[in-house]
Specification:
The protein has 6 helices and 11 strands. By secondary structure, it is of the alpha+beta class.
Length: 265
């Protein structure tokens, strides 16, 4: 569902809210696009748009509750490039801070010594099962990255940006132990290479593979001519944040999720 806010004087659009399903559990997600400075609590298009979106999320019946069930469901407001205005806006609508994703960036190439690590390119049609097993063990409690199945992975393999040459895997003892999946954002300004998914099977923790695979991925991106590397990391993952900052990544911006329960409790 989409809602547009217009300026009463000019009739021009000044904001947009999008409410959608988020996963199979009945949760909903709302995102806003508004004119600069319009995410203030208690006034302006952001306040009105978020209020309308939450009211729609709470309403029984289609499109988000086809069965007309009065039961509660969780709705999340995602604020991109979040500021204190987003914190206040969410709180004014009864939403609590839940999660922060940091986008980190650094220049490429990365200078300095490397711990040797043997990597090869992922082979579609061959490596899916091994990668899913290792990845799902590594992200057993992660809200997005854990619990992938073959259909999910195959769907990503069909994306136009997918390049198996940039999907690096490392094997030890006959098992897929770690991987670094990169993604190129060629239309960004400047073009950037992303460490999209990096995972180390818990059975191989303590061997420095997180750092080694991150550097291998960044080296691959630099070899394609890219001069900026980026990644997303959960702000609460102190170990990962510390690792990436030790490699030279710095904060670019934060995206925050705020959650609340709507519908009859």
């Amino acid at each position: 569902m989409g809602v547009v806010a217009t300026d009463p004087g000019t009739g021009r659009a000044v904001g947009y809210a999008h409410l959608t399903r988020a996963g199979a559990g009945g949760d909903l997600a709302v995102e806003l696009v508004v004119a600069p400075g319009a995410r203030r609590a208690g006034e302006g298009p952001a306040d009105a748009l978020l209020g309308v979106a939450l009211a729609e999320a709470a309403r029984p019946g289609p499109p988000f509750d086809p069965a007309g069930s009065p039961g509660p469901r969780t709705v999340r407001y995602w604020a991109h490039h979040a500021t204190g205005d987003d914190d206040r806006l969410a709180a004014a609508h009864g939403l609590r801070f839940e999660r922060e994703l940091l986008q980190l960036r650094r220049p490429l190439p990365v200078e300095g010594p490397r711990a040797p690590v043997a990597v090869r390119a992922f082979v579609p049609g061959t490596d899916e099962s091994a990668w899913l097993e290792a990845n799902n063990r590594a992200f057993a409690s992660h809200p997005e990255q854990g619990g992938w199945d073959l259909a999910t992975l195959r769907e990503h393999e069909q994306e136009p940006w997918f390049d198996p040459a940039g999907f690096l895997v490392h094997e030890e003892d006959g098992r897929l132990a770690a991987s670094c999946w990169t993604k190129v954002h060629g239309s960004a300004d400047p073009p950037m290479g992303e460490i999209y998914v990096i995972s180390v099977d818990p059975a191989f923790h303590g061997r420095g593979l997180g750092r080694a695979m991150t550097l291998a991925g960044l080296d691959h991106l630099a070899a394609t001519g890219l001069t900026v590397g980026m990644l997303y990391v959960d702000g609460s993952n102190g170990a990962a944040v510390a690792l990436y900052r030790s490699i030279g990544f710095t904060d670019h911006h934060a995206d925050r999720a705020y959650a609340g329960v709507v519908g009859a409790v």
